[in-house]
Amino acid sequence: MTDIRQTRADRLHARLAGLGRRARAFEHEPLPPGTGIAERGAQIVAGHFLFRGYLVEAAETSVWDLPLPDDPLFEADLHGMAWLDDLAAQGTRKADVLARDWVHDWIARFGRGRGPGWRADLAGRRVTRWIQHGEMLLDGVPPATRRRFFRALSRQLTFLSRRQRSLPMAAPRLESLMGLLVAGLHLRGAGRHLSRATTGLANAAETLIDAEGGIANRNPEDLAIVFGHLAAARVALAEAERPVPQAITDALVRAAPVLRCLRHADGGLGRFHGGGRGQPGRLDRALAQSGVAASPPGDRAMGFARLSHVRATVLIDVAAPPEGPGSAEAHASTLAFELTSGRRPVIVSCGAGRSFGEKWRRAGRATPSHSTLALDGYSSARLGASGDGLLSDAPRDVRMERRRSDRSTGLIAGHDGYVADFGLTHVRQLYLDTNGRALRGEDVLATVEQSDEAIFDRALDATETGHLTFRIRFHLHPDVVVQPGDDPKTVLLLLKSGELWSFHHGGAAEMRVEPSVYLDSVSLSPRATSQIVLASSAADYATRVSWTLAKARQTPDAVRDTVHDDQPVIA
């Protein structure tokens, strides 16, 4: 009911917004455009429209005449017009003409406040792009078309000023406020929006970024998006010689080291709790705009631990997942890890599957979709039975200790997500050699308290086999080629860079290489990949499995990685 009321209110305000004041020209030169992807722009020019995991192929067709998939997020991406960045990055005459034609076609169809796209976050995204790409969008147009452009901008600004508070305090609210800010700085007659925009952004900075520089949902990509908006606001205000609210500056100072900690060696973010790797170049740009001096990455932030030596980075989820409303996209990923070597991800999680539908979204949140241990048929946290998508029965006691020596840096961590039902605590040790050539791990399922033993005994009695089966999974990036090793306990992993890694395990476990998927919102569909699975069972009060992932001896410490992503690995 709330969504229906909000939609009705949006429609009413969109139609009434035409009564507001009108801007007629740019006061200053438009902002430089955002970071687009030229390859994606080339796809759009060729008639291949990929949004939210859906591909619509329609050459020589207006973007507003596309046959739409049954997903409102696809249509929202169209009307937000972030694709203008990609067309601008493509940089050809045809891309410029398409961008110009489609924007003015939108004005003709929807610019009077009717139809889809009249939502405060989409309007904010759209206004920002129109101003950033104003020179391209107005190049060579007749005076009447130019007047209609500024009339449509003015209507959207009036709508934004009235509706931005209808959005929850999250990234969408920031998008609407950024639209007001950019317009207030660069449109003649729109300066009245500046005060509301700067106040709103300052409040958002204080509310969204906590005292430690993190964000409540523990999603690294969401933090990067919020940080990017605030960094862009700082630059825009500074360049216009306007005061930057102290709350924005302080939030950037808090969040910058957190984001540096959550990046892999290749610059991508850890893919945890619904977040992806982030658009290439966007975080680098935001960090540069923030004005926060670079510093070496820390070893723990926002509930994640980082191990890093030479060319290798490991990110580990060492905290309980978010609770309450913040867990709507959270994953049961406690003690899962990712490993990247140089430019190449090696061990990954399956990722967020919401681009491919509800079934993939739910599957991506489960513990078996992460590189960690899971009891067969169970996750360390469960989706609530109420149907709201929130996590329940999550680990409450998650502990971690650092371990350091001359040869390695590591940690020992544990969680109680399986104690209530099975009496078992999962304890994981990880050690990264200081030369970055080997990651050594051990996973233990054990009873800690005497009361846990009684729970474990009852759980065993309830089975037909007298033991509890579990699997330790190591999901591999799709570019990793798996080859058999010299013995049943070893497999070899070949990276596109030419690096060769060897995975070996010890203990009573059976190793298998099984199919897996890599869920990425920029892909057409879930990408097929592989996973190493160590299958074992717990029949005693303590069961342990050890393993090692190490570079082969013939792999040099420094590899000149010149292979492009579109070049196949030759095994």
> Oligomeric state of the chains?
single chain
Q: Let me know the average pLDDT.
A: 89
CATH class of the domain at 324-551: Mainly Beta
Structural class: alpha+beta
Which percent band covers the strand fraction?
15-25%
CATH architecture of the domain at 324-551: Distorted Sandwich
Distance between the termini: 56 Å
CATH fold name of the domain at 324-551, please?
Answer: Beta-galactosidase, Chain A, domain 5
Contiguous uncertain segments of 5+ residues: 566-571
Estimated radius of gyration = 26 Å
What characterizes the major β-sheet? 9 strands, antiparallel
Shape annotation? elongated
Secondary structure: helix percent: 25-40%
What's the topology here?
Elements: H1 2-16, H2 38-45, E1 48-51, E2 54-57, H3 72-80, H4 83-90, H5 93-110, H6 120-132, H7 134-138, H8 143-163, H9 171-186, H10 194-208, H11 220-239, H12 246-261, H13 282-290, E3 300-301, E4 304-309, E5 312-317, E6 337-341, E7 344-348, H14 358-365, E8 373-375, E9 382-383, E10 391-392, E11 398-404, E12 408-418, H15 419-422, E13 424-433, E14 438-446, H16 450-461, E15 468-476, E16 481-484, E17 490-494, E18 500-506, E19 510-518, E20 527-538, E21 542-551
Antiparallel strand pairs: 1-2, 3-4, 4-5, 5-6, 6-7, 7-15, 8-15, 9-10, 11-12, 12-13, 13-14, 14-21, 15-20, 16-17, 17-18, 18-21, 19-20
Helix pairs in contact: 1-8, 2-4, 3-6, 4-5, 6-8, 6-9, 9-10, 9-11, 10-12, 11-12, 11-13
